[in-house]
Amino acid sequence: MENTEKKSRNFIQEIIDEHNKINRFDKKVHTRFPPEPNGYLHIGHAQSICINFGIAEEYGGKTNLRFDDTNPTKEDIEYVESIKEDVKWLGFHWDGDVRFASDYFDRLYDFAVQLIKKGVAYVDSSTLEEIKEERGTPTEAGKESKYRNRPIEESLDLFERMKNGEFKDGEHVLRAKIDMSSPNMNMRDPIMYRIRHAHHHRTGDKWCIYPMYDWAHGQSDSIEGITHSICTLEFENHRPLYDWFIDQLGIHHPQQIEFARLNLNYTIMSKRKLLRLVEEGYVNGWDDPRMPTISGLRRRGYTPKAIRNFADRVGVAKRDAVSDVSLLEFSIREDLNQRARRAMAVLNPLKVVITNYYENKVEELEAVNNPQDETMGKRLVPFSREIYVEQHDFQEVPHRRFYRLTKGSEVRLRYAYIIKCEEVIKDENGNVIELHCTYDPETKSGGSSTKKVKGTIHWVSAKHAVNAEVRLYDRLFNAEFPEADKEKDFTEFINHDSLTVLKNCKIEPSLVSAKAGENYQFERNGYFCIDSKDSTEEHLVFNRTVTLRDSWAKISGKK
RNA sequence: UGCCGGAUCGUCUAAUGGUAGGACAACGGCCUUUGACGCCGUCUGUAGAGGUUCGAAUCCUCUUCCGGCAACCA
After folding, report:
1. Is residue A435 within 8 Å of A406, Cβ to Cβ?
2. Confidence band (pLDDT; 50, 70, 90) for A485?
């Protein structure tokens, strides 16, 4: 029932529908995507981007891109640029200019003064340890600070002097005066400002006090007129605090809605752990094609459309969930099947001599560029007496359902002729190094011959072949849930065979013009793309995006 | 044992008091000049116990299990 599938609403859409019904936000929908510029975006962020931009699009609303840059010691402009690029690459357009929480530092400061004057915020001169001590535990109420009831004037004065740089880091903080015995830890007089004599990537040295995320975030949303602040589950407990700030200030009140973040099996999503993979050299950078980062997926050959389709299929809900990576793979295969140009490439070459073919003859054979899309046209592929085929397409002792080359068997060369394997040449160690075959001139592709064989294999003309390096990627972790074992570090589950480099691949000549950003299907092998960093005209490097579905692997695994 | 949230096929997600459906995965078959694609079919699920009701995944009660919360991080 496609019909019901289209009509079904996720819980966020239901909430917005209800708001529109009761006219809560004048039927407006304005969302935002608010990353902290302290790392690269991953597939989980991609889902959040799709939700925020997708929801707004659906309701004819807008989405802001705002960097929550409230901690100058962790953040960097490099990350700002990469995040902007990733959002654009996914195909989304933010409303107006990129925003920064730091754009609102002056207003946040004024808001804070307002709350101090109102008697609901105070400067606390306790030490870090004292504050920690007095916060209590989830099951035990906290204690009020001895500075909690200091006169408003005194707090005002101290806060201004904090701003003016009269104190060292950690000497004072500004706290909201709420309830030290609240069962919600976030309401136990949370810290609003801390002193940090640090250089900020945008405001420079203007400030030496910086707002905490909890104090900056809700007000930033309010200032921007956000209607629906969509965020992940861990901020659910913070919502009462955000609501409290907004209500105390009497400003525009967005509705926060929390959803369960995306998890994927056989990988990790924590920025901190991803950083470790990079720093400890398990991968070659944030955009290593094995990384679940958007930049890694892009380099691997994933398309924005595949990622967006994946996000749609996974859906959104409030329960914790781990999605199956096979769904991501399905999404990229589905997209690439439609758009990727086909080509022939032999990854592990085995030489074949067609003994009854003319010594110097070359035929240009017509090959379809994409059987799913006629408009992609055809190309010519050179054929000659010596070709390369895949080592795996020959079996000396064939599996009973093996339809390819074995001594005496016939197989079709894709877009060319049917050949028969006559002789197997081995080296002194007994390794098969060459096959001698004969071809049937009557069976030229497109001809009138009705001869049928069960197997068809790809090939590349030896004298026309171009050498290339091909990198095959496998999952980065062997364990389905690398973080689940509390005893072991996640790095113990790293798959040490996640990268296989093949340096002696033979590709058809038309592939020399391949450019980064294009997707190809190497027939019977998988989807591949030029590596955007390491490939050069002299030394082509291809990345395998994903294999084709391989039912032969299942058959051969049995017997 | 505090507060907040959650529990539907193997996985993800619908059904909002009226036939538990879809996608992925798996399995079987058809098709095939890609063992691809496509097509057809099969399998598997409401955490448990009570209750309300003609009728409960849905409402009520109790239980069990899972996640989050004690950075001057976000």
Report:
1. no
2. confident
Q: What's the confidence (pLDDT) of residue A266?
A: 97
Q: Which residue approaches B8 most closely, CA to C1'? A: A319
Q: How many Å from the CA of A261 to C1' of B43?
A: 30
Q: For residue range A168-206, what is the model confidence (pLDDT) as tens digits?
A: 999 999 999 999 999 999 999 999 999 999 999 999 999
Closest by CA to A217, choosing from A196, A195, A197, A235, is A235
In this prediction, residue A272 has a pLDDT band, given cuts at 50, 70 and 90, of very high
Phi, psi of A353 (to 5 degrees): -105, 125
Where are the alpha helices (H) located in A118-212, listed in sequence order? 128-135, 152-163
Are A116 and A149 in contact by the 8 Å Cβ rule? The answer is no
Contacting residues for A46 by C-beta, under 8 A, at least 6 apart = A86, A90, A294, A307, A311
Nucleotides of B under 7 A from a protein CB: 1-8, 10-16, 21-28, 33-38, 66-74
Annotated catalytic residues of A are 36, 261, 271
Minimum-distance nucleotide, CA of A451 to C1'? B33
pLDDT in tens, A397-407: 999 999 999 99
Q: Whose CA is closest to A209, among A153, A269, A166?
A: A166
Distance A322 CA to B22 C1' (A): 19
- Please state, in angstroms and rounded to a whole number, the distance separating the CA atoms of residues A112 and A68: 18
> Whole-number mean pLDDT of chain A?
96
Measured CA to C1', what is the nucleotide nearest A458? Answer: B34
Q: List, in sequence order, every residue forming a beta bridge with A121; answer none if it has no partner.
A: A176
Q: Is A295 helix (H, G, I), strand (E, B) or coil?
A: helix
* Nucleotide B70 C1' to residue A186 CA (A): 10
Residue with tokens 């944030």: A286
Q: Are strands A520-522 and A341-343 parallel, antiparallel or unpaired?
A: parallel
Burial class of residue A32, CB neighbours in 10 A (0-12, 13-18, 19+): buried
- Output the distance from A313 CA to B5 C1' rounded to whole Å: 24
